[in-house]
Each structure stands twice: as structure tokens, then as C-alpha cells.
Structure prediction request, 345 residues.
Amino acid sequence: MGNQHLEDFCRRLRLVFGGDVVDSRFRRYRRSPERFAGEILNSRWWPRQRDIARCVMQSRRTVVKSANGVGKTYLAADLSLWFLYCHAPSIVLTTAPTRRQVESLLWEEIRRRIRRSNAELPGVLLKTKLQIREGWFALGLATDEDVRFQGFHAENMLIVMDEASGVPDEIWNAIEGVAVGRNNRVLAIGNPLAPAGQFYRAFRSSRWRTLTVSAMEHPNVTGRGEAIEGAVTRETVADRVAEWCEEISPPTAGARQAADCFEWDGRWYRPNDLFLTRVLGEFPEDAENRLILLRWIERAMASGLEPAGPVFMAVDVARFGQDCSVIAVRRGESVVRLENFAAWT
Ligand SMILES: Nc1ncnc2c1ncn2[C@@H]1O[C@H](COP(=O)(O)OP(=O)(O)OP(=O)(O)O)[C@@H](O)[C@H]1O
Ligand SMILES: [Mg+2]
Prediction:
């Protein structure tokens, strides 16, 4: 065997059986995904990517609703590799609604990151699989195929749902069901396309840590911090403001929240549903909630006002159709009881 062949052969051996070496090299990054991403993968995150990574490290379930082009998939690729290499042995499952999305979005980023890595990252890399050794691998699965998440168990496991608002509820439930091991994590990220389904419900569940990322905060848009090539731009946002938002007269400081508007280049606007979803990373309104906007309700629920003061009761009586009758009890500014009845029988 010539020298070159011998070297290639040894390299391949190291790639396939190098697990123990990896473990000792990368173990120290377990609590520092950002350092792993920086030192090994050559990635620099912007602050909101950092927040998401911190959340994944600290919590079992993280759900992120976000604008387009802010780096969700990019970050998910970094975190997949961080978890895989720093928690040996581990399983990383990534999923998205279609095979095309799995292959061309997250796994394209994973391939790119491995190619540009500063370190030799062992493992055999296929289109949507990276195997370090038996029981230690990352795998991409599409939820429109016959996927059985129930079959996967490991003490160290990360499940990433990209484009999570399109992941069917039954898969979502299966994933929540399997991610119960000691060091199991789930990261669900996506554009908040509709106020329905498990992605939406996760934002109202205490079992999930929730984050929202608006394009308005991105360094390319604010002009503060290092620009990121390929991500959302100020020009795109300006176009969308012009196309999707209605200009309004400047509200008084007190009325700003209720007016549900934002300032852009010194003018005031009210967003439409597309702008909410694609630029602000907020759920659109569904037709039933037009009178009292969903995000007003969410804001009120998050306000944490203490019940104090006089007690009021109110009733909204339903008669025909699908509505329920509702009785609410309010103490001061805080609703302390809400009951609904399908019918008055
Ligand atoms: N921290 C970063 N460093 C370098 N490039 C980045 C970074 N974050 C994102 N990018 C690049 O910005 C572009 C948009 O990122 P990405 O596709 O991850 O955004 P996204 O939020 O998933 O978008 P979408 O809403 O379309 O799914 C990509 O070209 C990606 O490679
Ligand atoms: Mg994406």
C-alpha cells in the first residue's frame, strides 16, 4: 500500500471508529454550544440565536416562532452537530414536513458546516444521516413518510422539528412521547403560519419554553451588530412594510400597545397577517378572533396582574350555532374564573 493509500485508509478508520477520540475532544463543549459552534463549526451567532441555544441547553422542550430568514435552520444545524458530538453516544433526529425540506434545508446546512469545520469531525455522512458508530448518529426524517419516532430511545437525544408548524399533530405527540429520557431535548422552530395545531398550542403550554424572533431585531435590519450574509435584509422588510402594512397616524404613547402598531422609519403602521407571520414572527389572527385580537389576549395573559379590588361577573349567552355561553369572574383587573357551557340545560 502506497503512503497516500495508507493515509486515506487510516483516515477512514478514524472516521468510522473515532468515537472515543471525539468524546474526549468535545466533551468540554457540553455546556457551551456557542463555543462549539464558534471554535469547531466556524459559526458566529447573533443574540437571538444565542438565546435559542441557551434555552435548548437548559430546557427539555423549546418552541420558537419566528420571522423568515433570521437563521432558524442555520442554528438548528449547529445545535444538531453540537449535541451529536458533545453528548456521546447520542441520537439526533431532525424532521420537517417533506423529504425535500429535510434534504435541502437542514441537512444542506449540516453538510456545509461539516465541510467548513475547523476540526476533523468523524462519522460517515450520507444525504440525511451522519453515523459515528452503532447507536450514535444523526438522522433526518420527513413527516410525510412512514416515520416511527416511537422506535428511538437514548439517554442523550435531541429532536429538531424544522418548519414545525407544518408537522402533523400525531407526529408532534409521538415526539413528545419519546423525548422523556434523562437528557432528551426537543427544539421546534418555524414560521407561525396558523393559530391552530400543536405548534400553536405549545405556546400556551407550561411544558414548553417559548421564544419569538422578529426580523425587526436582526442585525441586518437594525444595523447594529455584525451583518449576516444571506439572511433577512432591511430592504426586504421595507418592501414588506410598504406592501403589507397600513400607515396610520402616530398614536399617543398610551395608545401604542392597544393600537397594535409599530414604527418604521419615523412613520406608524398596522401590520396585516402576512407581515405578522413573516416579519414579526407572530401568529396571524383566525377569523373567529377578529373582534378581540388573539395577540391582545396573549399579551393580557402574560401580564401577570394580581387579583385585587372589587369583584365583577359577566355573562355572554350563546343560543344557536357553535358558540358556548361564557361566565367570567373578574377581581379588579384580573380574570379569576372563566367557565363555558355548551348549552343551558
Ligand atoms: N449566524 C449565521 N452566520 C452565517 N450565516 C447565517 C447565520 N444565520 C443564518 N445565516 C444564513 O442566513 C440565511 C438564512 O438562514 P436560515 O435559512 O437558517 O433562516 P430561516 O429562519 O430558517 O429561514 P426560513 O424562514 O426561510 O426557514 C442562510 O443563507 C443562512 O446560511
Ligand atoms: Mg428555515
About this structure: The pocket of magnesium ion (ligand 2) is lined by residues 72-73, 105, 162 (CB under 6 Å).
